[in-house]
Design goal:
By secondary structure, the protein is α/β, with parallel strands linked by helices. The chain has six helices and seven strands; from the N terminus they run H-H-E-H-E-H-E-E-H-E-H-E-E. The protein has a single domain, classed as Rossmann fold (3-Layer(aba) Sandwich), CATH 3.40.50.150. Helix 1 crosses helix 4 and helix 3 packs parallel to helix 4. The structure holds S-adenosylmethionine.
Length: 201
């Protein structure tokens, strides 16, 4: 699954691949959220995270290269009585706003190393001072498990990659290890992940 067309195909099959409830680590940040904060949900897919943020009265922009995913995200927002702004774009070539967001949600977005470097830099620059970045991704230890994640090991995350990539941000939390995922049909069972919370100074 490494291009927009294949994600469109996956999202076109009905249901919510990763559920309609938010990612658990993002959900754990609820106490840090305030109405009116500007949130950017990157690789937001079918919108479970962006919509959840909008339900907390944040102003949400969801970016993904899957038009099918974002159409479902808009429908989910409508069904929940909230609004999100959707942008169909490749994160690598998107014209990212600078210092425009109080929160960036980077949940299960796995990119080739060169693309990851670009998107890490853009995401850090997109944060306003004091803004938070919440990240969850699979690590190399996930190989062989059937609870989700890319097959290509180069796309996987590690705590070291987080520390190195986001060296310009303040690291508030960084956890690497095993969790029991229960996030839709595609993320079920024990999984090896990194969870990180960072803040722009
Ligand atoms: C594993 S899904 C996670 C979706 C969502 N964040 C969630 O947790 O439910 C990864 C998402 O990243 C998107 N994605 C991957 N590479 C991308 C890129 N270069 N530009 C935009 N979206 C991308 C895919 O289309 C997909 O929706």
């Amino acid at each position: 699954m490494s291009d927009a067309a294949s994600w469109d195909e996956r999202y076109g099959s009905g249901g919510f691949a990763f559920g309609a409830a938010p990612n658990r680590y993002l959900e754990a940040q609820a106490a840090r959220l305030q109405p009116g904060m500007r949130a950017l949900a990157i690789g937001d897919g079918e919108g479970r995270n962006g919509v959840w943020l909008a339900e907390h009265r944040l102003s949400v922009t969801s970016v993904d290269w899957s038009a099918t995913g974002l159409a479902k995200a808009s429908a989910l927002a409508n069904a929940r009585g909230v609004r999100i702004q959707t942008v169909v774009a490749d994160l690598v070539t998107w014209n990212w706003p600078v210092e425009a967001f109080d929160l960036v949600a980077w949940i299960f977005v796995h990119l080739p190393p060169a693309d990851r470097a670009v998107v890490v830099a853009r995401a850090a620059a997109a944060l306003a001072p004091g803004g938070l970045l919440v990240l969850e991704g699979f690590t190399a230890a996930q190989e062989g498990r059937r609870s989700g994640g890319p097959r290509d090991a180069e796309l996987l995350w590690s705590a070291a990659l987080v520390r190195e990539g986001f060296a310009g941000l303040e690291l508030l939390e960084c956890l690497e290890g095993t969790v029991l995922l229960d996030e839709g049909p595609k993320h079920q069972g024990h999984a090896e992940i990194v969870r990180a919370l960072l803040r722009k100074r």
